[in-house]
């Protein structure tokens, strides 16, 4: 994994609201959440949610897809697995 991408992803997740948004999405698997439901779960205004989702999308940790009139947001599980693997590389056994 590219260290610059890892740093941007960690920075994005370092914000408590974005971490809460990511965790809400990750808990739904591939099903994802409609934006309105995500907003309800994290308890923030739509404009604030949009800002935080944009950062997660820019770093490859989330995606959005329109299905008819519904905008679904999903966590990108392979991106998180890659980030966690990168962080765990070269960790020796204690």
TrEMBL record:
This is Transcriptional regulator. The keyword DNA-binding applies. Residues 1-94 form the HTH arsR-type domain. SUPFAM superfamilies: Winged helix' DNA-binding domain. InterPro entries: ArsR-like_HTH (IPR011991), HTH_ArsR_DNA-bd_dom (IPR001845), Metal_resp_trans_reg (IPR051011), WH-like_DNA-bd_sf (IPR036388), WH_DNA-bd_sf (IPR036390). Keywords: DNA-binding, Transcription, Transcription regulation. It comes from the Bacteria.
